[in-house]
Amino acid sequence: MKNKIIMFWAIVLIVVASIITIFVKPTKLGLDLVGGSRLVIEAETTKNVPVITQEVMDRLQFAIENRVNKLGVAETVVQQIGEKRLLIEIPNVTDLKEAKAFLGETAQLEFKKEAIGPDGVQTWVETGLTGQDLAKSTLTTDSAGHWVVSLEFKSEGSKKFADLTKELVNKPMAIFFNGDLVSAPNVNEPIYGGKAQISGGDSGFAYEEAERMVNLLNAGALPVPAKIVEENTVGPTLGADSIAKSKVAGIIGLGLVMLFMVAYYRLPGLIADIALVIYSLILFALFKAIPVTLTLAGIAGFILSIGMAVDANILIFERTKEELRAGRNLFTAINSGFDRAFTSIFDSNMTTIITCVILYMLGTSIVKGFALTLALGVIISMFSAITITKNFMHLIFGTGELKYPALFGLRKDEIGKGFEATETKRENARFGILD
Fold it and tell me: What is the distance of C-alpha 202 from the center of its chain?
């Protein structure tokens, strides 16, 4: 009994922690619930990349993910669809002008030097030092208060930059961004240490221009150009309507299930209902703590997992009633009911979890949300049914005899009948008598 009391207080602490998490942590909602934008971009071949391979797509996806993260938009989905396309879902963003420009730019930084051709024409030539050699860039101000972009090169890039500045002492070094000349400072002396600044001319950069350049440089260059082939938006009104309907459906469904459990299983059903509420609190808190982005499909997975949690309790209670009918005392019947039902519960839940893993690995973003919430729900439901319900039943019923069979939905004349019937069948089988 002491262990049961300790477990009870452990459950109470978990519930309290779950409630605190629910109120403190924000809920991450997906595109279909909060509104936002959905883009599909397609990779394009170039002279240097004549074929779009899976490696190219992986690099493109990585670069796009970095860029989207630099936008400061949380819970954005970037996923490959088909051979040459990426699906990008951006919650809470309905004005795509800036986002589209940001996603489509190549972010190519180049350092060039002046040269005089055979025909006497002055040009700039490649030096091999590009944005690929950058470790990071930051937005700062110079001594005059103008916005500048500070650059920090990787180790190999630092060597290239030192060699280039040594070669260009008292000569201009041209800095191009996406093909446009943004600065052409004279090099007064070799620069060591791998650090430099882009000033943007006498007046410096505008803040928005410098910030955009820093974000693009830190996100990295796209391996190939990408064009937007599809775009649409989901209004927040539609998302709010979906949330409202989901709440109503969840409340009605949960209410009907809880009424059924009390009506059919009586006091154990009420215990199961309490465990179900605790299960819902723990699972919702887990969604917020991870955090899990809830989509409409994810909410469906959550509601489905509630049904599966109830299903586990039904198996346990039916097994327990069988043991009571067989004449066993209450304590033994409860333990045996849980033990005999465990295998069936474990097998069915493991099958569901395996299916969820497959759906998560191979499905689209919507399917992933459904699979994740359902899998987490199934795992927590096993804890709820096996641990919480069993602990509460032992605390309430103790180790005594079953004085009130009606509390389990049984009649007094049913107690022991199952045991007698079983023994009669065994005797008949011994003597070859068929029913």
Answer: 46
* Cα–Cα distances in angstroms (integers) from residue 393 to residues 97, 290, 340, 378, in the given order: 60, 31, 16, 21
CB 173 within 8 A of CB 111: yes
Give the pLDDT confidence of 211-262 residue by residue, as tens digits.
878 877 876 667 788 888 888 877 766 667 877 888 888 888 888 889 998 9
Q: What gap in Å lies between CA 220 and CA 67, rounded to an integer?
A: 8
Q: In which element (H, E) is residue 360 found?
A: helix 330-362
Q: Give the predicted TM-score (pTM) of the model.
A: 0.65
The pLDDT of residue 380 is 92
- The H or E element that residue 58 is part of is helix 54-70
Q: What sign does the dihedral 209-215-220-226 (CA atoms) show?
A: negative
Q: Which amino acid is at 18?
A: S
Q: Which residues contact 309 (CB under 8 A, 6 or more apart)?
A: 276, 279, 377, 380, 381, 384, 385
Closest CA to 154 of 169, 139, 137, 140: 137
Q: At 37, is the secondary structure helix, strand, or coil?
A: strand
Give the C-alpha separation, 196 to 21, whole Å. Answer: 46
- Sort 411 into a burial class: Cβ within 10 Å, 0-12 / 13-18 / 19+: exposed
Coil, strand or helix at 181: strand
Is the pLDDT at 424 greater than 50? The verdict is: no
63: amino acid identity, one letter: A
Asked whether the predicted pLDDT for residue 140 surpasses 80, the reply is: yes
Q: Which residues pair with 198 in a beta bridge?
A: 149
Whether omega before 236 lies within 30 degrees of 0, making that bond cis, reads: no
End-to-end alpha carbon distance in the chain: 44
Residue 402 main-chain phi, psi, to 5 deg: -85, 100
d(CA 78, CA 200): 33
pLDDT in tens, 310-356: 888 888 888 888 888 887 888 888 888 889 889 889 998 999 999 99
pLDDT of 105 higher than 70: no
User: Could you tell me how many residues make up the chain?
Assistant: 435
User: Higher confidence at residue 348 or residue 67?
Assistant: 348
Contact 92, 36 (CB under 8 A): yes
**Separation CA 144–CA 123 (nearest Å):** 31
- Residue 433 has phi, psi (to 5 degrees) of -90, 125
